[in-house]
Design brief:
12 strands; alpha/beta; about 15% strand; seven-stranded parallel beta sheet; 11 helices; single chain
Length: about 325
């Protein structure tokens, strides 16, 4: 059976498939056009952020299973997969710790003005830049976590450990499902008003797309920071840019964008009060190894008729 690996993955997954007799075919690019060409004749696919919409899937006449190299499946047309009995799996146990650590890193980096201080110090050896930008400590501050799944709870534990107050918004959680160190707030507006940091850990769906926009930035403290390591579509990017330009919030740490790969002309690149990283929150060595392996395991479990460890949808045979 031929398996498309649409984007580069760790050797762990490729080795796992080859040892079990699968033929692997490595993708040729990141565009929809390349996906349409690459997917023809393949019965399975491992995918990360490449587009996998109806046009791509219609070209995949033999496709039976898609393994997501990661967690968010917003780049996959799930309605088409459900309708055409294409199984989708994902890797929810692979990268949660890495994403939580990156979110915390962005909180630290924003607080210490790492972006602009590093720029001036490296480029001009400007030692006195340290006197021109004030930094703040995380201890004693309040972090509002949107989404209290595995990643959100992992971040909460770390924030508790450095002396932060943790509050959270998640309409699908109950207080008794959470540690006593996390205060569950049922109204997102209250979380926005109280928090010194907002960290987003939500999937991008019809329910969450555009959840944070201009109205929400108006509610936040002028001293607050926004951190997004989930999906770009959860935040209205143009509203974020305007809020930063108008100093409605103090800064932002952004790992994900509405359009990926991100356009070079994106104004966020030029802002002194923004830390940007290229969707690498889940990219630790440990996470990359596990995501590759777990995605490959999903492919093999499907074709071997074994119970699926991490199914996204349920298909009928």
């Amino acid at each position: 059976m031929k398996i498309l690996i649409s984007e580069p993955i760790a050797e762990s997954g490729k080795k796992y498939l080859v040892e079990r007799g699968y033929e692997i075919y490595e993708g040729t690019g990141y565009t929809k056009e390349s996906m349409i060409q690459d997917i023809r004749g393949c019965e399975g696919m491992i995918i990360s952020i490449n587009p996998c919409d109806k046009d791509v899937l219609e070209a995949a006449l033999n496709l039976k299973v898609i393994a997501k190299h990661g967690v968010g499946v917003d780049n996959i047309d799930m309605k088409y997969c459900d309708k055409h009995n294409i199984q989708v799996t994902f890797t929810p146990l692979a990268n949660g710790q890495a994403v939580a650590e990156h979110a915390l890193y962005l909180m630290f980096a924003c607080s210490r003005n790492v972006n602009i201080i590093n720029k001036y110090f490296r480029e001009g050896r400007d030692f006195q830049v340290r006197n021109r930008y004030n930094s703040v400590e995380l201890q004693g501050k309040t972090v509002g976590i949107f989404g209290l799944g595995r990643i959100g709870r992992a971040l909460a534990r770390m924030c508790n450990g450095i002396g932060m107050e943790v509050i959270g918004y998640d309409p699908y959680m109950l207080q008794n499902q959470l540690s006593s160190d996390i205060e569950l707030i049922k109204e997102k507006d209250e979380v926005l008003k109280r928090s010194d940091y907002i960290s987003i850990h939500l999937p991008c769906s019809d329910e969450t797309r555009g959840l944070i926009g201009f109205r929400e930035f108006e509610l936040m403290k002028k001293s607050a920071f926004l951190v997004n390591t989930s999906r770009g579509g959860v935040v209205v990017e143009k509203d974020l840019i305007e809020a930063l330009e108008k100093e409605m919030i103090r800064g932002a740490g952004i790992d994900v964008f509405e359009i990926e790969p991100v356009e070079a002309s994106n104004p966020l690149f030029e802002m002194e009060n923004v830390i940007v990283t290229p969707h690498l929150a889940g990219g630790s060595e440990e996470a990359i190894y596990k995501m590759s392996l777990h995605a490959a395991m999903g492919i093999d479990e499907f074709f071997s008729g074994k119970p699926l460890s991490w199914p996204v949808n349920k298909i009928s045979f």
